Amino acid sequence: MGYIAKNIEGVTAILDEKTLNEPKTIRFIDSNYHDLFRIPDGASIRICYPDDDPRRMKNFVCRYIDDYHVKVGSSVYHIAEFAERMERIKATYAPAPEKHIIWSNISPDFEAWKEDVRNEMSDLSDSELYNRMIEDIDEQLVDERINLKNGNYDILAIGDIGRWNGRVTGYKEYLNSPISAILSSECDYCEWFVDECGELRSTQHHHDGTNYILYRKYKENTTEEQRQRLKDLIYEGKPFDGALKRYTESLGSDVAKVYGWELKTGKGSPDKGEAR
Fold first, then answer.
1. pLDDT tens track for 128-182
2. Is the alpha carbon torsion for 131, 137, 140, 142 positive or negative?
3. pTM score of the predicted model
4. Which terminus in the chain has less CB density within 10 A, N or C?
């Protein structure tokens, strides 16, 4: 195995075949190429603009392109280009506040898990302990499905889907279903969470790339015609933010009530707009 070139978001990304199916992290640097921080693929940064900028502060979802390119909001940058742009407009950037994770098998902390069970499983090898950890994580997913089994929603899932030949946008509906219906995937590594803006989302890694999914519920007064109009916009790859706000609403608060989370949402969705 070696490196392959792949067109992602208009960038010729250089990817290591050995790590294609592994979770990625995104590196942020300053204009002198000094490392500042890393975030997981699909996490968000918070950009603080100068006082005279009406945006003031905004969160942006970030997506891994390759080790030197990142998509911030709707814009793709070389990591050095992004650093220089932020410096030029006198903006600062840092990881966004922590999200609330429902379930994840992305990069589990084996050492921390092993420490927790050391006394009761001291006779097991590391390999046996790791397998036991994976079983434990899978059992937790069953528990979360039980936690979210109540209620009936008309859910619209909007996916930014990574394929071997590029990215496409699609949708899936879960009609008259509990939120637990979304906790299923054929991808190898998944995470479901409520982000810092109160949106229910999922990041799902597979052998061809990564899927980013936003889950919203249809508003009660929406008609079939309005729902179809929104789905047509998504399917045709046309701008759909306005229709999404008119015909759907967040599921984050519904999830937060189950777990007792306090959501401190920022202004707007972290997916909207360009980081400029």
1. 888 999 999 999 999 999 999 999 999 999 999 988 888 899 999 999 999 999 9
2. negative
3. 0.68
4. N
